[in-house]
Amino acid sequence: MTLSHADPQDRLSSVLQDLRKGWRGPISLNELIASLGVRSFAPLLIVFALPNLFFFVPGASVIIGPPLMFVAAQLVLGRPSVWLPMTLGKRSIDPQVFERLMARVLPWVEWVERLARPRYWVLSQKAAERTVGVGCLIMSVFVLLPIPFANALPALSVIMLAFSLGERDGLWLLGGGLIGFVSIALVFAIFAAGAFTVLSFS
């Protein structure tokens, strides 16, 4: 199956709608990257984070977490395009799962796009990519942690940071960063509570 390549000026909702229309069978992550074209970093961060925000995709963090980490790391390193190792790039997404996900998230994405816009943006392109990349890389590690229902906040942080990069929106950058700090505090609190429980019964 051949998917059309996204225009760099297209909004994410338009790109996802096109993918939804053309998605008729299993598609590999490498094919998804190719279809998103040169603007793939921010959309891929959002696409890979979304299943962890909507809990109906079983095992989403295990499947999507490693690619999310790779994309964020390459954004930090300043790569011009996304690359995945063969073991990750060959992973495919079932079209029925994708359809269910799109039916759930497209209205939300369109709503977010109406709110996000260029404002309060003081970072250069390189500084913005490094800042968002570091934040998303840290959050992608938390997404992979086997903590029930603790993946949603890091995933939301990634989505907000990626939208801020795509729209040059300083408020979304700030919001994504704040949610990231809350995620860090929550994960450390969970581990501290677990350690305290273990020590109490030892």
From TrEMBL:
Keyword Cell membrane attributed: no
UniProt entry tagged with the keyword Transferase: no
Protein origin, superkingdom: Bacteria
Bilayer-spanning residue ranges: 132-165, 171-199
Recorded coiled-coil stretches: none
Pfam families according to UniProt: ExoD
Cross-referenced InterPro entries: ExoD (IPR010331)
Keyword terms of this UniProt record: Membrane, Transmembrane, Transmembrane helix
Stated name of the protein: Exopolysaccharide synthesis, ExoD
Organism: Sulfitobacter indolifex HEL-45
